[in-house]
Design brief:
The structure holds three protein chains of three kinds. Chain A is of the alpha/beta class. Helices cover 24% and strands 23% of the residues of chain A. In chain C, β5 and β6 form a beta hairpin. Classes of the chains: A alpha/beta, B alpha/beta, C alpha/beta.
């Protein structure tokens, strides 16, 4: 049934030709550039409910985290960043459901975008991608030279090979479905902190 | 400059003062104005209802009445938009059609774009709320549209700003529709009236004493509410203000 | 022929009877429109983005068959299974078969207007499968046995006190607690168990990239990602129009979507799925359900550019004051009023008239669909097919006859003016006078403009006798 529908849909679409239109060349676009992308990133991240830290090196992250009550109280921490200590080993986890009680995930972001505070993470650093979403709190670590101004530059940098799963995360999960009141912490993480390194 | 004055039917029948103000204003700025008496209605009510077959003869009639004028000017953005943006469906292919569209102007844009009027010697010491009539705004781009981010003109506003003593109030919603919408005003009476009431309230709360617009149809709807609710707001077409009329409260 | 079997005006007149609530609804959505304005104003190239988006969509629709095949090839190459459904029923069957094969009894579903359009939930529920909508707004309407009233903000018509009451009844939150943060937390807590227990996850698709076979899903809550990263089976349902040619085209659409929809710079999560979870299955169901017909229409094909941001609803002064349910369709508002009559003209012929032709939707649309012009075009089609009320048809026919003849027009005007002048008020404002229920007529002038003009010219001639 499905294969006959495939045929009928495609042939119907081919039957009716529309006048030719060119696909626009996006490299010619006037995409926004920020004089101070770090400041823009910080401003935008805070606007979307995230917290911003700039540190000299990765080693300094734990010192900053030590200031947070939630971090000190955390029982299950999955760290994908060598310089930050965790106590859960991703490779030992058989089913993603075992991440249910994760308190923190500390992960590398390959890219951060100043215009919308989106940070790219993918499944190349972890087997179970659910960890990004199921954890109560999320810490992302991005190098200063991986900061771009806009989404066009971001997709250019992602390039090839494209991972099996990748996600732009901008701030913590949130909802405004009850009378447009913003509530941080919907189904995904309840807070998101970004460390820009360098 | 020889102008064919295009007076929308409801202005002709219900608001002759607006027509007279338009006539005087155009004469004051040195135009030779003629009102061709064969004109009736541009056909917009039929077109907006979807009755295109009923619109056709009216579009043709309009074309025949006005084709010989150097310019056609009307105190209505909506009716001008009907001619300029929608007549191609009805009068396409007739010689001079495109040039007639290009020669047809809403009053304010005629004053700013064609005549480049830079002074208006009128004193109007009132707080004025400018209702941005939708078709003038979004079909003719007479003023800045709040949705767009491109560089935009401000024709109506710039004319009002030339008046002595005028204060344009800042509305909470600068270009929300009043809810008239032609037959919508009756077919969707509930929403139409609520929209109108919300507009009146916005002008009132912004401290306006006078509500003005480029289109009398919006103003007829708003005036209907203002009168029924006995509010102290004067309603004036922009032609009346520019021609030096004073409000009656 | 039956006309307007669903009458928007009847529904909206009922909605505005509760003025306080209609104004509350209007303000809630206007707030979202203002947030959109602020975000759009921060992007100097906003209009260029809209133009590019429109071009990409036009190109896509023109080359849709090729691009769909390319998408299928690429998606299959990375391990997804692609299914094709000509209509809603087939879509539901395909989804059900996949679930049956895996003996799935419990699924979690993130927001998908397509599955709403196909009425997937009742289809699966009647076959013994528990479906939980995990988007908070959708879950609220699901618990209340309602349908979404907005495509992005499904529960925008519901007050927090009512949500509190619903949660009290269904998940035992304390009676009278209507604090949004408390209620959202309670939902998070309750739904976590649904995510953990789900055996399959269903999602919609925001964009499908032909070039590399990935699908992109945008949420703020993280519910789509949680729902399809725990169970091994992910079913993604998409209309044929969700396609985009290149990965880089996402750089246009992800910049427009959330800014237009909710006034955010981007959604919290923009997830790209290319193939299934390791060891899992990804099924992509591509659905036509009337879209290929719409594509053939010279008038309405541009409505397929829609990326379902909901901005046209938030800006529509009629939608804001009549509520999404007054449209009786899955997709309400301006875009819904174009799509619905294309599917069922006999039912939805009143929707293109639920509009003042103000044009705000057209200017706010991130992919530049000329919404209000299409609504006007619909009116022409519906009138031609005699799908508008007799009252409208006859009054316009009569008016047209009168207006064709200058003398008849003048006579009619004279009659009208004098009726207003001389009839007693109770006769003018009778119960059939819809205009006059809440509005006065203008005070009737003594004479028309043309009479005044004639008089004026007469006087001028008398003053300046011709030589």
């Amino acid at each position: 049934m499905s294969s006959s529908s495939r045929k009928s849909i495609l042939s119907k679409l081919r039957q009716h030709q529309r006048p030719k239109v060119e696909l626009p060349n996006l490299s010619e676009g006037h995409w926004i550039q920020y004089d101070d992308p770090v400041a823009q990133l910080q401003k935008t991240l805070e606007f979307v409910g995230g917290s911003f830290h700039q540190v000299e090196n990765v080693g300094a992250i734990e010192n900053v985290l030590a200031n947070f009550e939630e971090w000190r109280a955390a029982r299950r921490v999955l760290s994908l960043v060598d310089e930050v200590t965790g106590n859960v080993c991703s490779d030992e986890v058989a089913t993603p459901h075992e991440f249910e009680d994760l308190d923190f995930v500390v992960a590398r972001g390959d890219l951060a975008v100043a215009e919308n505070a989106a940070v790219w993470v993918d499944d190349r650093q972890v087997r179970h991608r659910v960890c990004y979403f199921i954890t109560q709190y999320l810490i992302l670590v991005v190098n200063r030279d991986s900061l771009v101004s806009n989404m066009y530059e971001a997709y250019q940098r992602l390039g090839q090979p494209f991972p099996r799963f990748g996600c732009f995360i901008s701030g913590p999960s949130k909802t405004a479905d009850i009378e447009q009141s913003l509530v941080i912490g919907a189904h995904g993480c309840r807070s998101m902190q970004l460390f820009l390194v360098g | 400059m020889q102008i064919g004055l295009f007076i929308p039917c409801y202005i002709d029948q219900l608001y002759p003062e607006v027509g007279l103000a338009t006539l005087e204003l155009l004469e004051q700025v040195g135009c030779y104005v003629e009102f061709p008496e064969a004109q009736t209605c541009c056909g917009q009510p039929m077109a907006n209802t979807g009755c295109n077959a009923q619109t056709q003869p009216l579009a043709e009639k309009f074309f025949d009445v006005f084709r010989s004028f150097e310019f056609v000017v009307a105190p209505s953005g909506s009716c001008v938009s009907m001619v300029r943006n929608h007549y191609q469906e009805y009068v396409r292919g007739r010689p001079e059609f495109e040039s007639l569209c290009a020669r047809t102007f809403e009053l304010c844009e005629f004053l700013t774009d064609v005549l480049h009027v830079d002074t208006i010697a009128v004193r109007f010491p009132y707080r004025v709320g400018l209702h941005a009539s939708c078709h003038g705004l979004r079909e003719l781009r007479l003023d800045a549209c709040s949705e767009l981010r491109s560089k935009q003109s401000s024709k109506v506003k710039s004319l009002l700003e030339k008046l002595d003593g005028i204060e344009l109030v800042t509305l909470n919603r600068p270009d929300e529709c009043c809810g008239f919408g032609g037959t919508f005003a009756v077919a969707e009476e509930g929403v139409s009236v609520l929209m109108g009431e919300d507009r009146v309230l916005d002008h009132e709360q912004s401290g306006a004493q006078v509500i003005t617009a480029t289109d009398m149809s919006c103003l007829m709807h708003l005036e209907g509410i203002v009168r029924r609710q006995r509010k102290k707001l004067a309603i004036m077409h922009i032609a009346q203000i520019l021609a030096g009329r004073q409000p009656e409260f | 022929m039956a006309v307007h079997s669903f009458d928007h005006a009847q529904q909206s007149n009922r909605f505005v009877q509760n003025r306080e609530r209609a104004r509350w609804h209007d303000s809630a959505l206007w707030f979202v429109r203002q947030k959109r304005d602020r975000q759009a104003s921060m992007i100097p190239e906003w209009e260029e983005l809209r133009e590019k988006a429109s071009q990409i969509k036009a190109y896509t629709l023109n080359n849709l068959a090729d691009l769909l095949e390319e998408f299928e090839r690429q998606a299959t190459r990375v391990g997804a299974v692609v299914h094709w459904a000509a209509h809603a029923e087939e879509h539901n069957q395909i989804v059900h078969e996949i679930l049956q094969k895996h003996r799935v009894r419990r699924i979690v579903k993130s927001k998908s207007m397509l599955t709403e359009e196909c009425h997937l939930n009742p289809y699966l529920e009647s076959r013994g499968i528990q479906v939980v909508d995990t988007d908070l707004g959708e879950w609220i309407v699901q618990l209340r046995d309602e349908s979404p009233s907005h495509i992005v903000l499904p529960a925008i018509h519901i007050k927090k006190e009512e949500v509190g009451e619903t949660f009290h009844q269904h998940i035992g939150t304390p009676e009278g607690n209507a604090d949004p943060t408390f209620l959202a937390r309670a939902a998070r807590h309750h739904l976590r168990q649904k995510f953990i227990g789900a055996e399959a996850g269903i999602t919609g698709v925001n964009f499908a990239v032909a070039e590399n076979g990935s699908i992109v899903i945008c949420t703020n809550e993280g519910n789509a990602d949680l729902g399809v990263s725990l169970p091994p089976v992910h079913i993604a349902c998409m209309g044929i129009e969700k396609l985009i040619p290149r990965l880089e085209d996402l750089s246009v659409f992800t910049r427009l979507l959330a800014r237009s929809a909710t006034g955010q710079p981007i959604t919290s999560y923009t997830s790209h799925f290319r193939g299934p979870l390791p060891g899992g299955e990804l099924h992509i169901v591509i659905v036509d359900n009337g879209r290929s017909n719409l594509r053939e229409s010279n008038e309405f094909h541009r409505s397929l550019h829609c990326i379902r941001c909901g901005a046209c609803m938030n800006t529509c002064p009629v939608y804001r004051r009549s509520g999404g349910h007054s449209y009786g369709t899955t997709v309400p508002g301006p875009i819904g009023s174009i799509l619905a009559p294309a599917m069922k003209p006999e039912t939805y012929s009143s929707l293109p008239y639920a509009c003042t032709l103000c044009g705000s939707c057209t200017d706010v649309c991130p992919v530049k669909i000329d919404l209000h012009h299409q609504l006007l075009t619909w009116r022409g089609e519906l009138a031609k097919e005699r799908r508008i009320p007799v009252s409208k048809r006859w009054s316009m026919a009569l008016a047209s006859i009168v207006l064709r003849n200058t003398r008849m027009y003048q006579l009619a005007g004279w009659l009208g003016r004098n009726a207003l002048r001389y009839l007693p008020r109770f006769l003018v404002y009778n119960r059939w006078n819809v205009w006059g229920r809440s509005r006065d007529f203008p005070p009737p002038p003594r004479r028309s403009f043309r009479a005044a003009y004639r008089e004026r010219n007469q006087k001028r001639r008398e003053r300046k006798p011709s030589p």
